[in-house]
Amino acid sequence: MIRGSLILMGGCLAFSLPIGVLGGVFFAEYGTTNRFIGFIRACVSALAGTPSIVYALFGYAVFCILLKLNPSVWAGWLTLSMMCTPIVVLMTEQAIKAVPETTYEAAVAIGLTRAQTLGKVILPAATPGIATGLVLATGRTAGEATPIILTVGAFYKTGNFEWNANMLRETIMNLPYHLFEGYRQGGKIPETIIWGTCLILMGLVLIINLFSILIRSKYRKKLAS
What we know:
Blueprint: H1 2-30, H2 35-48, H3 52-66, H4 73-97, H5 101-109, H6 114-143, H7 146-151, H8 175-184, H9 191-224
Helix pairs in contact: 1-4, 1-6, 2-4, 3-4, 4-6, 5-6, 6-9, 8-9
């Protein structure tokens, strides 16, 4: 179950990180005056607050049924990535806009192009804010049960787990779904196991947050020096 949760979080970040950062950069740098881009930003903001059950139903209908991926790791990754990407986009945009204008002007003054300024100055300065967005997205991925239940979750599986391409087309066990089933089945699972699952899930989210705090502190000290 721990392994399954880590696989889901890793795949979700692999999809949502590049798309979310690129989307945030685009909104911050190129979408300040365009009305159409403003409409797209409003849609992204709405998606960031959409309940997880909506993503679960959409992921099941589109990825599992329409695209015939069936409940699988692929379907789970795509559904969770859709749910987390808007958060990363908005946090990246806000982090870039929070960088002082004088920083951009100083980079231009020494001869850097707009792309060089963005890659070598703006993004490093915005890294703490981007890391915060990733933490929020990862925490949501780790704790949401509804999308997992419909697209990838397995309560119990027999046989040995194999790291190969075939696993992407199969369901996997994970902590949120196990916790949900533990309460739903009412006494069939020992209560100590249920509370142990709660403790592990909370500890996993805590470790992720601590890791993010260390990254933010490191970059802030680097920028301050």
